[in-house]
Amino acid sequence: MNQKILIVEDQFIEANHLRIMLQRAEYTVCGVARSVEQAEEMIETHRPDLVLLDIFLTGKRTGIDLAAQLKEANIPFIYLSANSNEEVLNAAKATHPYGFLVKPFRDNDLLVTLQIAQYHHENGLESQLRKETQLQTQLATITAGQSNRQQRLLMIAQVLQPFISFDMLVVGSLDEAGAQQHDTLHFLRIGFNEYQVFTHDGLKVILNARPAHAVPANERAFSQVQYFNETSFKSVIAKPGTHKIMAETFGMNALLTLPLPPGAHHRQCFFSFYSRRPDAFTDDHVSLGQRIQPFLVLATQSMSESRVPAIGSDVMHGLPEPSPNSVFDNIIGTSPQLTAVFELISQVAPVDTSVLITGASGTGKERVADSIHALSPRKAHPLIKVNCAALPANLIESELFGHEKGAFTGAIEKRTGRFEQANNGTIFLDEIGDVPLETQVKLLRVLQQREIERIGGKAPVKVNIRIIAATNKNLEKEVAEGRFRLDLYYRLNVFPIQLPSLTERKEDIPLLVNHFIGIYSRKTGRKISGVSDKALAVLMAYDWPGNIRELENITERAVLLAKGNLIEHISLPVRQPAMPSEKAEEVRLKTIFENERDYIIQVLEKCNGRIRGEDGAAAILKIPPTTLGSKMKKLGIKRNFSF
Ligand SMILES: Nc1ncnc2c1ncn2[C@@H]1O[C@H](COP(=O)(O)OP(=O)(O)OP(=O)(O)O)[C@@H](O)[C@H]1O
C-alpha cells in the first residue's frame, strides 16, 4: 500500500486507534497532528499522500480551515467527524473533500473510503492531464490552421471555455510602451459555445447607448497572470477603464488576466477573461494560464504574421460556424446557469463516471440524463429509466435486479431486472433519495463491483453499465438524518450536476414559452404565433414552484384557451396570500418540499381531487398516477379526495 497518511485528530485514543488500524492495512502514518498549526508543519515536512481530517481540533482553527490549503497543495483529504449536522456537512462539502465519515464508523468503512479517495484522486489528476494535453493539441491545430484572426481567436475562446469558464473574453495587443492598441476583439458568451464578437469600434457603438462611458485610449494592461474576484475586482473597477466598462455594461464581476510576452517579430498581447460569477477564478486558473502561455504566444504570433482581413468597424460579428447548441436541442435555454450545466454535461458524457443530478422537481433532471446518454459512447445501447419513488419497497429489488423463477411466492417466471436490461448502456435511477436503506446496500455493491445478484440467483451476474442518478432531495440532509448511506452518497456523487430552478434563470422563460407554444400548437392543430407582452410579463413575475414542468402545463392550457392566434391571457395558480403576521423571511425560507406539497395540493384542488384520467392531477403534472400517489404519501398529502 505504502501511501503516506497524516492523521489530524485531537483525541488521543481515536488517533491512536486510527494509526494502528492504518498500519495494519499497510499504510504509512507519517504523523498525528492535534491542531491545524501542527498539521501545517507536518504537511510541510512529510508531504502526505492523503490527510484524515477531524473538523473540531485543539485551537481556534478547524479542519475546514485547513482544507483550503490542502486543496491548494493538491492533497486529498477525508473528514472524520462526530458532528453530522447539516450546516457542518454543507460547509465541509463546499471544500470538496474526497470523503466524509461520521464517527463512530467501522474500520472497514474507512478503508473503503480511502480506496475510493485514492481512485478519485488518481483518476481526477489523470483525466485533468489528459484534458490539458488535448487542449494543447487543439491550440496547436488552431495555430497551424488557415483561418483569419477573428476566427482563430473565436476557436481559441471555444476550446478554453471548459477550462476557464468565462462570460466575456477580450483579446488585444499592446504597443512598445505597453498601451492597448485598437485591434481589440470582444467575445461575449451568449449560449453554449456561442459568442457575439465585436471590435473596439463595435464596443463604442454599444457604449454610445450609455453615454456615461467612453472607451479609454492607451489603457495599460496587467503584466502577469492574476485574478480579481469580488472584492479585489471592485478595486480594479474603481478606476475608469475597460474593466469598469465590462462590469457596468455587461455585468461582469471577476477578471482573470493573461498577458503574453512580446517576441522579436510580434507585439505583446493580452487575454482578459471576465465572469459574472464573483468567485469565478482560482489559483488553479493562474497555474493553467501560465502553462498555456507559450501555446497562446505561438497562436497569436502566427496571427500577426498571417494577412488578416479587415474586420468591419462597428459590426457585431456572429459565429462563423452554425451554433453547436444543437447537441442540446432537447434542453431549451441560454442563461449562464444553464450554459454552465451544458458545460458539465459535455465534460462528463464521454467518460463512464457516475453522475448525480440534483435540483427541484420539474427542473429538467431527466432531460439532462437523456443528453448525457445521447452524447456518450453508449448511445447505441439502451437508456433504462427507473423511478425509484414509484416502486413499492417490496418490489424494488426484483425490479432492479430481477429474480429467478420460484424465487418467492408469485415469481412464476424468471424476470430480467432493469440493471441487466441496461447492460452496455446507461441506467437512470430517478428519485434515488427514495430507495430504502436495505436496497441501498445492494446498489453500493453494483457500483463497487459492477455485478448484480438476481433474487433467488445462485451466482452474481456482471453488468457493464453507466449510472446516472437524480433526486430532488437534499442528500446531505438525508445522510445526516440516517436515511441515506454515506458510502453510497460518495459513490454516486462523483460528478454532481445541480440544476438551477426556473426563478434563477428567468431570462429563459420567453424561449421556453415559445418552445412549448410550438409543441402544443402542433399537437392541438391551433395556429398560435406567440404570447403578448402583457402575458409574458405575468409569466416573468411568477415564482414557478413547479419549475419548467409547471411552465409547460400553463403554456399548454393557455394554447388551448387562446381566443386568437396570440396568447393574451395567462391563468396562474391562485396562491394563498401570506398572513399579515408572516414575516417575509419566513416565506422565503419555505423548503422545496413545502413548495412541492403546496403545488400538488393546488393542482388537486383544481381537479377536485381527481388523480387519474385526462383531467386528473397526474395528467396535469405530467407524471404517472403511481408517482403522484407516492409523492403524496411522501409529502403527507391525505387522499381525502374522490378518484
Ligand atoms: N430545458 C428544458 N427545455 C425544454 N423542456 C424542458 C426543459 N427542462 C424540463 N423540460 C420539460 O419539463 C418537464 C419536467 O422535466 P423533467 O422530467 O426532466 O424534470 P425533473 O427535474 O426530472 O422532475 P422530477 O424531479 O419531478 O422527476 C418535462 O416535460 C420536460 O419535457
UniProtKB/TrEMBL annotation:
Signal peptide: none
Entry-linked CDD domains: AAA, REC_DC-like
The protein's name: DNA-binding transcriptional response regulator, NtrC family, contains REC, AAA-type ATPase, and a Fis-type DNA-binding domains
SUPFAM superfamilies: CheY-like (SSF52172), Homeodomain-like (SSF46689), P-loop containing nucleoside triphosphate hydrolases (SSF52540)
Record carries keyword Lipoprotein: no
Stretches assigned to the Response regulatory domain: 4-118
Alphabetical list of SMART domains matching this protein: AAA, REC
Domain Sigma-54 factor interaction, chain residue ranges per copy: 331-560
Source species: Dyadobacter soli
Keyword S-adenosyl-L-methionine attached: no
One GO BP: regulation of DNA-templated transcription
Residues found modified as 4-aspartylphosphate: 54
Highest taxon in the source lineage: Bacteria
One annotated GO molecular function: ATP binding
